[in-house]
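Lecture 7, part B: from sequences to assemblies.

Below are the input chains for today's worked example.
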Amino acid sequence: SAVISQKPSRDICQRGTSLTIQCQVDSQVTMMFWYRQQPGQSLTLIATANQGSEATYESGFVIDKFPISRPNLTFSTLTVSNMSPEDSSIYLCSVEGETTGNYGYTFGSGTRLTVV
Amino acid sequence: GQNIDQPTEMTATEGAIVQINCTYQTSGFNGLFWYQQHAGEAPTFLSYNVLDGLEEKGRFSSFLSRSKGYSYLLLKELQMKDSASYLCATNQAGTALIFGKGTTLSVSS
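Predicted structure of the full complex, as structure tokens:
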């Protein structure tokens, strides 16, 4: 299954600033997915990122707040813009498994963001 | 849209068997996934069911009934390290996983 390197692993940021999270995959993948996991909650899908096209955002998430780049088939970034304490969460990227039945979807190790 | 429901919390003792249920309503069903997530870690893949029936993998088994929109994860011979959140998820073909709220399992000695 794919291996994802996600960074930073954690950060503490001032409100009003922005943080860019990077995910690098060791193989080419068509789609990459970005999730948010608020404290004590499950994973919520933010957007789907395809190479060469604009990301598709889920209800409640907008491009101005969470701009996404997907410059090639192995890399994507998610920026959390104009942060407030409510943005304190874990952010994870994910890719579909090589063979869904055997490998499922793989996740990066996550970025734990604290906004102060 | 997709709606996934699972219990919030469960407790069990070491050596016991526990069954975590998941019901779902989804359009374009492509499969039912179970993930395990320890505190502070990323989710790890446990199982995938696309056909009805039981899939067994060591101490963990997963069952699916598509007609009932129902799945369960069965954990046998519980160990303390099985204390974690268990996430039920579905997807449509070629799309992202959509997760339920997760079940926090606490295993005590």
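Note for the exam: The radius of gyration of chain B is 13 Å. Keep this in mind when comparing with the next example.
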